[in-house]
Specification:
This protein is of the alpha+beta class. The chain has three helices and five strands; from the N terminus they run ααβββββα. The longest helix has 35 residues.
């Protein structure tokens, strides 16, 4: 069966109107904004709170280090903190290793 050439040839699609190039950038920019508010901003907030906690650290505070060692602050230096973990047993840890400050009397109850 033979068809005339005019039936076989595909008709050319109408030319698409050129889109706005800024719409192509909208999705990546939106993803970056969402990532900032979901991941980066909370991390910056935690770092700020940790720095504030370390600057408010004082002698006699009960702390827990990143390694899980609990004790009472005996001496605070520029970058190190001396923590008493048992009677007459003191260790030096970096200030940044202090994870949290416990409420007063927490070590006596444990």
């Amino acid at each position: 069966m033979t068809f005339p050439m005019s039936y076989v040839m595909a008709q050319a699609a109408p030319a698409a109107a050129p889109g706005n190039p800024l719409l192509g950038l909208a999705l990546p920019i939106l993803l970056l904004v969402v990532m900032f508010f979901v991941m980066i901003r909370p991390q910056m907030k935690r770092q700020k709170e940790h720095r504030a906690m370390l600057s408010a650290l004082s002698k006699g505070d009960e702390v827990v280090t990143n390694g899980g060692i609990a004790g009472r602050v005996e001496e605070i230096g520029e970058s190190f903190v001396t923590v008493e973990i048992a009677p007459n047993v003191k260790i030096k840890v970096q200030k940044g290793a202090v994870q949290q400050v416990l409420p007063k009397g927490s070590l006596k109850s444990s």
